[in-house]
Amino acid sequence: MNYISVAIDGPAGAGKSSVSKAVAKALGYVYIDTGAMYRAVALYAIRNGIISDTQKIIDALDDIKIEIKYSDSGQLILLNGEDVTLDIRQEEVSKGASSVAVIGEVRKKLVKMQQEMAKHDNVIMDGRDICSVVLPDAQVKIFLTASADARAQRRYKELVEKGVECDLETIKEDIIARDYNDSHRSESPLVKTDDAVLVDTSDCDFDESVRRIQEIITKTVG
After folding, report:
1. Maximum distance among all alpha carbons in the chain?
2. How far apart are CA 143 and CA 37, in angstroms?
3. What is the DSSP letter of 134?
4. How far, in Å, CA of 221 to CA of 4, rounded?
5. Rounded distance, CA 85 to CA 89, Å?
6. Secondary structure letter of residue 60 according to DSSP
7. Rounded Cα gap, residues 163 and 182, in angstroms
């Protein structure tokens, strides 16, 4: 059986994960959050005090087991058997994910896992290099983006609603820095491939963003 793959790339804070989850649910596809996998590696490195030591992270890769499972409450991320779904959403882990993502050996390990997942289901996979590296033959490719201002506002609102003290300008500066790091790294930099459809959601609410992505998929593969 030939399965359908939808690859969605884009910068941090563009809403890739939340939009992809909603579209996958609507279409009956399996959603694979590749960013969560890098966050899990970062969490392991932080917990073990090696986040700043590239070689120690590489040496630890065989000890890092990441699983994606599904429950009634949604997708679960397991790190060596522990549910870390909430832990990997901490700001420290988000920054750490950008650091580990530039390590070639980390990317090779996770890309292999991601490609294997796409062989067994219709999937929607989002990240930074899905169109260009992980699923270069995906039937649908989308580059989902939004302005730094829009992304910072969304993140600020999300954190405030959770009761987290934060500063809008600092969040924006972090987003701009992550954009630069993601697009200038030597290993699989963030790029829009020529065959990817550009979707800018700066002026869209969540429902409109979901509708636009779903339309692109259904028009392409039915």
Report:
1. 50
2. 20
3. I
4. 8
5. 7
6. H
7. 29
Provide the domain count of the chain: 1
CATH number of the domain encompassing residue 186: 3.40.50.300
Please state, in angstroms and rounded to a whole number, the distance separating the CA atoms of residues 103 and 58.
8
Between CA 80 and CA 84, with CA 81 as vertex, the angle to 5 degrees is: 85
CA–CA separation, 177 and 99 (whole Å): 12
Residue 17's closest CA among 66, 88, 67? 88
Rounded CA separation 212/153 (Å):
21
pLDDT, tens digit, for every residue of 71-114?
Answer: 777 789 999 999 999 999 888 998 899 889 889 999 999 999 89
- In which domain, by residue range, is 169 found? 5-221
Hey, which residues does 31 pair with through a beta bridge? 124
Token digits of residue 47: 């917990």
